[in-house]
Structure formats: C-alpha cells, structure tokens
Amino acid sequence: MKSIPWFIKLIISALLITLILWKFPVSEIIANLQKANPGWVLLAFLLGELIILNQAFRWSYLLIVPREQKPKFGVLLKYTAAGYFFNLLAPGGVGGDAYRSVAFGRTHNVIAGSVASVFVARMFGLLALCLLFWLALPYSETIPKQAIWFMIAATLLLMIFCLCLAFNPFKKGKLGTLAEKLRDYRKYPLRLLVAMLGSILMQVLVILMQLAVFKAVGISISWGLLFVIMPVTTLITAIPVSFNGIGVREWSLLSLTAYTIHSEQMLAALFLGYAIVILQAIQGGIIYNFNHVPIRKE
After folding, report:
1. pLDDT tens digits for 103-135?
2. Cα gap 139→176, rounded to integer Å
3. How many CA atoms lie within 13 A of 297 on its CB side?
4. Could you read off the pLDDT of 178-207 as tens digits, one per residue?
5. Model's pTM, two decimal places?
6. DSSP symbols for 51-104
7. Measured between alpha carbons, how far is residue 31 from residues 4, 28, 227, 232, 268 in Å?
C-alpha cells in the first residue's frame, strides 16, 4: 500500500490551518502569544533538551553492536540532535529517526543494528503513550468516547505489531537482516526493560514540556486531563495523513479540550510549541553542518 504523497499531506495541513485561522480570531491568538511568559518558554526549551538526552541514552542501550563498534555517547547525542533538523524537513515526521539510524549505521557499518534500535525505540515510545493514557484516564475529566475507542484500537494494534516483530518470520534479504536484529532483543530483556522505562520517562518529559507551553500562555489544566489528551493527540498525529501532523494536531487538541480550555489560548500554545521545535531544528542544523562529514570513532 502506497503512502499519501507528501504534497497532498502538505495541502491537507494547509487547508486545516487555513480553516483554523478563518474560524478563530487571529488577533486573539496573537494577543495570547504576546503575553507569553518567557520563563515558562525557557523551561519548555530546556525540557526539550532533556528529551534529546533521553533519546540518546535510550539509543545507546538499544544499540546491539560489537564492542569495538560501540560509539561514545557524545557521538549518539550529536546524531540525535542533528536528527531534529531532518524531523522538521521530512513530510512524515520520522526524518530524524531515518537520518540518525541510517547515517550512523553507514558510518560505522552497523546499519541493520542501528535501524533496529531506533525502530524499537519508536515502538516503545508509542507503547509508553498508551500506558500513560490508561493510567491517567480514571483521573481525568470527561473526554469524547471516540478518543477512548481510538486508544483501545491503537493499544491493541501496537501490542499485536510488537508481537509480530518479536517473531518475525522473514529470513532473507534486507527485511530478513532487520528481522534477525529485532529477534536478537529477546536475548537482552534487561536492555528492553531499561529502554521501556526510558521511553516512559521521555513521554513524561514531552507532556511536561507541553504543560510548560500551556503555562506560558496562561492555560490551567489538570494533570489527569493533560496525561490523557497528549497521548491521544500524539498517536493521532502519527497517522501519516498530513505534513508532520500540522493541522491534525490543532484540531485534535481543540476537540479534546473544547469545554475546558479557551480555543485561542490553546492555538497560541500550539504555535508557541512550533517555535520551540524550530529552535531545536536550528540547533540540529548547526550540529549537522559542523559534522556534515560522518563522525567516526577515533
């Protein structure tokens, strides 16, 4: 099954954002942005930096390669940070994962292991979102039943998918090589446990980062609701129907918080969040330009 062409995703995002700007007063959104508290914005950015550190640590634990090919943590951190530059450019929202897994793998001649480790990390991240949702649901305000059914379906599909990966039948070709690397993780249960705990921590940091952005524009939200709406929105935006989830993310959060948060405040927070993402991408671009020659072990 072919994916939706990137230009169609871009059109979908543009239409959704245009509808938002037509429906909600732009002047009020700008007014909320102008009143943003710089202290909360700085905290959100620093939490974003912790997320990058977490990703690099998790990658280090999941990277199964011969000892002599194991890179220093600083190398993985550079690839992870540079990946944010490609995340901004890639239509599917996985450009950073593709860059760091393939670029590092080719440089160190461990491409199958590198791709497998990043892939497993992403699956653990999605599972962590589901776990946080179900833990927080009893403590949250009422949310649409459609969101609960969506999370039931998403959780079951992810669990089935992970089981299929663990017992992948492919034996030959590139897919077979990747499948073999994925099966190797059954030999390292401790690594998987640490990586899963790291994934949970990362998703908590992502939600706290969003909380800081909310606080920056004066949004007050309960912890229960926060830990419910963010996993739902993140998983919805992971569906590849728009350009990096732009437009879909906005409508998802507006729908989930329609009776609890002022819409113009929510949109201001989301646009502020994009500004932080762009700052991280600029940081990644600088790191990429300084290290455009593949980083090799000394």
Report:
1. 888 877 778 788 888 888 988 999 999 999 999
2. 44
3. 14
4. 677 777 787 888 888 989 999 999 999 999
5. 0.89
6. HHHHHHHHHHHH----GGGPPPHHHHHHHHHHHHHHHHH-TTS-HHHHHHHHHH
7. 36, 5, 27, 28, 9
Burial class (CB in 10 A: 0-12, 13-18, 19+), 32: buried
User: What is the Cα–Cα distance from 233 to 250, expressed in whole angstroms?
Assistant: 9
Residue 75 amino acid letter: V
Paired tokens of 289: 């330009």
Residue 160's closest CA among 197, 137, 126, 194? 126
49, 281 Cβ separation under 8 angstroms: no
Contact between 64 and 185 (Cβ < 8 Å): yes
3-state secondary structure 166-217: HCCCCCCHHHHHHHHHHHHHHHCHHHHHHHHHHHHHHHHHHHHHHHHHHHHC
Task: Retrieve residue 165's tokens.
Answer: 């990966």
Buried b (16+ CB within 10 A) or exposed e, 268-287: bbbbbbeebeeebbebbbeb
Percent of the chain at pLDDT above 90? 49
How many C-beta atoms lie closer than 10 Å to residue 209's C-beta? 22
Question: In degrees rounded to 5, what are phi and psi of residue 71?
Answer: -80, 165
Task: Supply 124's token pair.
Answer: 């653990």
